[in-house]
Specification:
With 143 residues, this protein is α+β, with helices and mostly antiparallel strands. Helices cover 42% and strands 29% of the residues. A hairpin with a 5-residue loop joins strand 3 and strand 4. It is globular.
């Protein structure tokens, strides 16, 4: 299970250290792609294969289906961990997420999210401020 929040520096070569706890869950490699809210998603390879199949089978006649599949699939790249547990973040994904020096690696059960530290802190502050109303909406969905 991927849970927790960690801060790591993105080095000059666009490498980011992934916490060892997460590397154990991800196995030998993972897939990184554009996420929602201008963060990056990192999926274990097996989970990614299932998700990619579902995205690939969505109806191409629906614009939203095409757009969402493009967002995730066209931006995806397989990554491996180097000897120090780092992954290489491609320039286009670094730009998409607005990553600067410090990144936050957040575990969200079946995936990781990578955020620019400042964007994460702003997002989290807003989330915490509105947590009661969000909880009410989720209750309406039976959660």
């Amino acid at each position: 299970m991927l849970i927790g929040e960690y801060k790591h520096n993105l080095d000059a070569k666009k490498r980011l250290s992934i916490p060892s706890k997460f590397r154990k869950e991800l196995g030998e490699g993972a897939v990184i792609t554009r996420g929602l809210d201008n963060c990056l998603f990192v999926f274990p390879s097996a989970h990614w294969a299932k998700l990619a199949e579902r995205l690939g089978n969505m109806p191409i006649v629906q614009q939203d289906s095409r757009s969402f599949a493009r967002l995730l699939l066209s931006g995806a790249v397989e990554v491996e961990f180097d000897g120090l547990g780092r992954i290489l973040v491609p320039e286009y994904l670094k730009t998409y997420a607005g990553l600067k020096k410090v990144a936050v690696v957040a575990g969200l059960y079946s995936r990781l999210e990578i955020w620019d530290e400042e964007k994460w802190e702003n997002y989290k502050a807003n989330l915490e401020k509105n947590s009661d109303s969000i909880a009410e909406k989720l209750r309406e969905l039976g959660i």
